[in-house]
Amino acid sequence: MAVNGRSTAPVPTLPSHADPDTDRVLDSGLLHELSYAFGGPFHFLLPHRFDANLAAFRTALSDAGVEGRVYYAKKANKAAVWMERCAAHKAGVDVASVGELREALGHGVRGENIVVTGPAKSDELLRLALLQGCLVAVDALDELDLLITLALTGAVRPARLLLRRLPPAQPHSRFGLNAAEVETALDRCVRAGDAVRMEGFSFHLSGYATQPRAELASELVDLCLKARVLGLQADRISIGGGFAVDYSPADHWHTFLADQRPEHYHASKTFQSGDFYPYHSPVAGADALRTVLDTVPEGGHESLAARLKETGTLLMMEPGRALLDGAGASVFRVQGVKDRDGYQILTVDGTSLSLSEQWFNSEYLPDPQLVTPTGRPTGDEPHPACVGGASCLESDMVTWRKIPFPARPRIGDLLVYPNTAGYQMDSNESPFHDLPLPPKVVLDRLGDRPRWRLDRRPAC
Ligand SMILES: Cc1ncc(COP(=O)(O)O)c(C=O)c1O
């Protein structure tokens, strides 16, 4: 194949799923205006997609006849708009720090709809959670002791808590209580009497497989039954997050994995394919919840949904990434173009700190779209280019891969990375080089002229 006049093997491509909402934004002309106005990279957010994802999770619960609650895992994106949507829809929020808890409360989420996760919670976090009536997922025995002490010495209400289980199938996890610790914790809860309300158990599993989630959920139902015999409330379980997002069609993903080689990356950079996020998932989002609910746990004879109903157990979940599927994208402006041996090195106006995958020894693979001042170019001849950040670090590559663009990128063109709201935009952001953090723009209405506002008003 001819690439820029040279004969070479085709450069693999990984297009994301077609997304008419994002395309309308790309074709509206707004992004160039905003890039000019901000003078740097920015992210745009589509709150209606968050609403739709939340509704899909709730529909999966009601279709299965299961009582459940969805808590948005706030760590996946720092924007205020998600808290606003959770408050408006009376959805829950999963927070893991004082800052996150303040943000959720400050945007109108009620304390009773907040679950506090994360290890070794500080006194300050536990105290605030108690005062606001939040549910605390207790990670360790010393944390339980601290929570009970705080509840006994001055809190206005009992401490609402879940006991987080160390997953037996992931015994090296540093989170949760092992079987012996669960016994001890139950005993301490019983002895604490009215100071605590032990509402059930929780877990969060690494990976995205549905079967292990159903298995462990069923074990937690058993634990609830045991705790109820001890006189504890134990009427709910949380299965955490880890509902996959399907970024790219199956055929593209499998072809990409089969074809990609070091020569397809700048400086022949190598990545372990196992370190890539699984950008294609046959079962994702709310469908993954449906699958978990339909699964018959090993040794059982009924689905998890049936077990939950039969035992009067409420199902909680904490999706982060999956609620943000399709809910945002990241925009960088090309600031420099350099020719190398058969490809270009683009330098954009931001850094890889705003597309965080590099920091996990991996790379965000869905292809960015090229948007020129006159629109999205089309063309048959690929123009491969990698993308560097505007910093002095060799390792600051937004994309090491040589992306086959449909036209030669030029200074002033925009690169729009699709579907970046889940963890990519801001989990590792840093104002390195005194570069400002990219602002976030909320698009409340699409159409020929999308309506935009800043996610947060600038401080005066
Ligand atoms: C306790 C807990 N809940 C929920 C989540 C959210 O996971 P995801 O964004 O994969 O749904 C995490 C992620 O680390 C977590 O640790």
UniProtKB/TrEMBL annotation:
Transmembrane feature ranges: none
Active site residues of this protein: C392
GO MF, any single term: diaminopimelate decarboxylase activity
GO biological process per UniProt: lysine biosynthetic process via diaminopimelate
Keyword entries, A-Z: Pyridoxal phosphate
Cofactor: pyridoxal 5'-phosphate
InterPro entries, per the entry: Ala_racemase/Decarboxylase_C (IPR009006), De-COase2_N (IPR022644), Orn/DAP/Arg_de-COase (IPR000183), PLP-binding_barrel (IPR029066), Y4yA-like (IPR042152)
N6-(pyridoxal phosphate)lysine found at: K75
Region (Disordered): 1-20
Domain Orn/DAP/Arg decarboxylase 2 N-terminal, chain residue ranges per copy: 55-251
Taxonomic superkingdom: Bacteria
Record PANTHER family: DIAMINOPIMELATE DECARBOXYLASE, GROUP IV DECARBOXYLASE
Protein name, per record: Amino acid decarboxylase
Phylogenetic lineage: Bacteria, Bacillati, Actinomycetota, Actinomycetes, Kitasatosporales
